Amino acid sequence: MKIAISASGSGKESSVDERFGRCPYFVIVDTDEMDFESVENTHTSKAHGVGPQVVQMLSEMNIDAVITGNVGPNAHRTLSSADIEVYKGTGNISDAVKKLKDEKLEKIDGKTVQGHFGKGGRR
Asked: What are phi and psi of 65, to 5 degrees?
């Protein structure tokens, strides 16, 4: 399985960022090989439509699932349309991946915050 984790920094010891679309990095993990790769999120400064643009980027990378702190309504709708599962994660990246593999992460089945949360929007 290939997963993307919203990250506060690059590397597997970074923390899971609570923002999906506006996190500074995504750590991409192949859970079969346990290979980690950091990718800068180049969509953070855009004014609107960030969530769906990030989903498009992840979809092009053949991501199967996302671990993040929160997801807004547009991002969740787009993730669902792309058949990318979403899980609630906290702590560091390595721990979140282990919890996913052990089936101990909560699946997110809807928005957890209102739109524009990553830009300072309301919960």
From this structure: -150, 160
Whole-prediction pTM: 0.88
| Surface-to-core class of residue 37, CB atoms within 10 Å of its CB (0-12 exposed, 13-18 middle, 19+ buried) | middle
Closest CA to 68 of 118, 1, 120: 118
- The string of pLDDT tens digits covering residues 7-63 is 999 988 999 999 999 999 999 999 999 999 999 999 887 767 788 999 999 999 999
| Cβ neighbour number for residue 105 with a 10 Å cutoff | 19
Q: Could you give the CA distance from residue 118 to residue 32 in angstroms, rounded to a whole number?
A: 31
Please give the Cα distance from 117 to 65 (Å, whole number). 21
